[in-house]
Amino acid sequence: xxxxxxxxxxxxxxxxxxxxxxxxxxxxxxxxxxxxxxxxxxxxxxxxxxxxxxxxxxxxxxxxxxxxxxxxxxxxx
Length: 77
What we know:
Layout lengths: L6 E2 L8 E4 L3 E6 L4 E5 L2 E5 L5 E3 L3 E3 L3 E4 L4 E4 L3
Antiparallel strand pairs: 1-2, 2-5, 3-4, 4-7, 5-6, 8-9
């Protein structure tokens, strides 16, 4: 089976976060940017560390608490 080439798992990011060499990447939730990665792979970004993915995993956008809004919001690059 052919591995996926490169999938952006953080579409709202200014730099992008890309999964490469995975068996399959499934978008589970557009709003929260949650993806299921099957078959391992590599997560690469321009502004963060490159991570090896050894097993199936979930990747989701980081949220932070904004005390001024008194609510959680997506973390920004």
